[in-house]
Design a protein that fits this description.
4-stranded antiparallel β-sheet, 4 helices
């Protein structure tokens, strides 16, 4: 009998349903690849189907104009937390990309401004490198 293996999702609200890619001007100088996302040396961010993220953070409302920006921002911050991107070099640009995508997706300029101010003010601890907890894979039976 084949086992069914899975993992519990903690701290995530959304899961990407199809692959997504976006060209950025964050160019790490070498290809960075993880199971569910990658960033090429020329700045192409690819996020694979089933990538999970927590959506917009802070005291905010999850709206369509915020979702794509939060997806890209969370993946870039995760690259920084994993030590694959230098957070001191790339954090501000990642925050600017969040604002730009939100504006492209119809967010008001005022809201995009305060979203940007929020990540600039409070986001550093989420970008600093740290050990990501191991994901427990559970198999049944």
């Amino acid at each position: 009998m084949q086992k069914a293996c899975y993992r519990e999702l903690r701290n995530y609200k959304y899961q990407l349903w199809q692959d997504y890619e976006i060209q950025t001007d964050i160019k790490p100088g070498r290809d960075i690849a993880f199971t569910l996302f990658s960033l090429s040396a020329d700045g192409l961010l690819q996020i694979k189907r089933l990538y999970a993220w927590d959506g917009p953070s802070g005291p905010t409302i999850d709206t369509r104009s915020f979702m794509r920006g939060s997806l890209v921002h969370d993946a870039l911050y995760q690259l920084m937390r994993l030590g694959a991107l230098d957070f001191q070099t790339h954090r501000q640009r990642a925050d600017e990309i969040l604002r730009e995508i939100c504006l492209e997706d119809g967010m008001s300029r005022f809201r995009a401004w305060y979203v940007y101010q929020g990540v600039r003010w409070l986001g550093e601890r989420n970008a600093r490198p740290r050990d990501e907890p191991e994901v427990e894979i559970i198999c049944a039976p």
